[in-house]
């Protein structure tokens, strides 16, 4: 069974993340959508809210499960028997960071392959921080996030 982990802070999960998740769910037998928790980072949405959003999105993909962890993602992959880690690339600026992350992960866990999915042109500009900034200024972000996230923006 080919198991992949798709980690991120998902603060919040966006339609760009979902597009990559959709493609990954077709490429792997099982995908774990992992909320990688960084305790030093204060997010817009709580861990609990983000997990609710992620679980709602995952309902559309029968081979996707949602989990969270605050340790090294490669160690999480080992515990779960995952041989692949999924990452998304939007632009050249993402490449440098992802290249360094990939090298560090390979040093720690050479048996885990990083698999990169290029963002679709329609979602290539979407990042959680961009969406949060737009929402902070009253921009309608309903086309950039799933309905559950959009409702949460409106409620805040």
What does this protein structure show overall?
By secondary structure, the protein is an alpha/beta fold. 44% of the residues lie in helices and 20% in strands. It has six helices and five strands. It has a five-stranded parallel β-sheet, sandwiched between helices. The longest helix is centred in the middle third of the chain and has 17 residues. It starts with a strand and ends with a helix.
Short description:
With 156 residues, the protein is α/β, with parallel strands linked by helices. Helix content is 44%, strand content 20%.
Give me the strand/helix succession: EHEHEHEHEHH
Shape: globular
Uncertain runs are none
Number of helices: 6
Q: Kindly name the structural category.
A: alpha/beta
Radius of gyration over all CA atoms, rounded: 15 Å
Helical content (DSSP H or I, runs of 4+): 40-55%
For the largest beta-sheet, the strand count, sense and barrel status come to: 5 strands, parallel
Mean pLDDT: 94
Oligomeric form: single chain
Distance between the first and last residues' Cα:
41 Å
Q: What percentage of amino acids are in beta strands?
A: 15-25%
The strand count comes to: 5
Major beta sheet, strand line-up: 3-2-1-4-5
